[in-house]
Amino acid sequence: MELQAVVDEIVHEVQPMLGEGAVASYIPSLGQVPAGNFGMCVAMSDGPVCGAGQWQDPFSIQSISKVFSLALVMSYDYDSIWKRVFREPSGTPFNSMLQLEADNGIPRNPFINAGALVVTDRLLTLTGDAAGSVRGLLRKESGNPAIDFDDEVAASEAQHGHRNYAMAHLLASYGNLENPVELVLENYFKQCSLRMSCEDLAAASRFLARHGVSAGGTPFLSPNQSKRINAVMLTCGTYDAAGEFAYRVGLPGKSGVGGGIVAIVPGRCAVTVWGPALGPNGNSVAGIAALDAFTTRTGWSIF
Ligand code: DON
Fold first, then answer.
1. Is 26 a catalytic residue?
2. Residue 247 labelled as part of a binding site
3. CA distance 171 to 115
4. What is the model's pLDDT at position 77?
5. Pocket flag, ligand 1, residue 62 (CB < 6 Å)
């Protein structure tokens, strides 16, 4: 199988779908990205990389950053985070607060916004600079020192972030934040605003395809921790569409409202796609179609 040809074909195939769905506009800065953009990259765990379309154009990684903040927290503090956040699929949208009160301030999982706020809070305690730590990890693992925050996107989200503010205050009311609400949100909006290309993101995610081994060849996570993060990505990484994603793609995956998705084939590669038009659950329509075609063609699903 010629992997570059597979990726080229898939990017060609999804072109007619690029208008389907809608670009996220609840963060006004994100709403300006053209819906017709699309890129895809595969980074093999042993080094080779191939890509097609706009795979080298940076975009806002948004909720994909939640994978890296969780990985950092687990790298410092093996599993104490699980006292403050569950690891069950929520079956609700990424920004829902419905279950948070019923569950006494313990979010259902670390990838819905409420859970990610708790993880960012923990990382802030552990490092003093949660967003900076996420940026540092991404720079190191991707080998791209130019990866940075998009201050306009972060400010735009802060201005329109009523729901995240409400969620953070509710968490604080249950004693499930260690740091001031403002500081946690500032770090959360910054980590979400990081701009990366499919190429950067595939390279940076490769440690999850290498059982925790970092780009430098040393263990960043243990194989067990890497397995656990992949498991949570599979069950919770695409919110109330996690069942549909597992059915169609059959891989651990994490999406963001910037239109990016990272999927991991453990032991083999990291795959990234980017198409800004989203379906009703906040996941890239063309991105899911491309990943579906990828696992169908290659047979590289975990099932
Ligand atoms: O908190 C938010 O609403 C955004 N910064 C991130 C949301 C997101 O990417 C959800 N993913 N599909």
1. no
2. no
3. 9
4. 84
5. yes
Kindly report, residue by residue over 116-156, the tens digit of the pLDDT.
Answer: 999 999 999 999 999 999 999 999 999 999 999 999 999 99
Buried/exposed code over 247-285 (b: 16+ C-beta within 10 A; e: otherwise): ebbbbbbbbbbbbbbbbbbbeebbbbbbbbbbbebbbbb
Q: Can you tell me the distance from the alpha carbon of 29 to that of 43, in angstroms, rounded to the nearest whole number?
A: 29
Q: 234-267: per-residue pLDDT in tens?
A: 999 999 999 999 999 999 999 999 999 999 999 9
CATH of 3-298, one of 2.60.40.2550, 3.40.710.10, 3.30.420.40, 3.40.50.300: 3.40.710.10
For the chain, give every domain's residue range: 3-298
User: Is 239 a residue of the active site?
Assistant: yes
Tokens of 6: 């597979």
Sign of CA dihedral 268, 275, 68, 119: negative
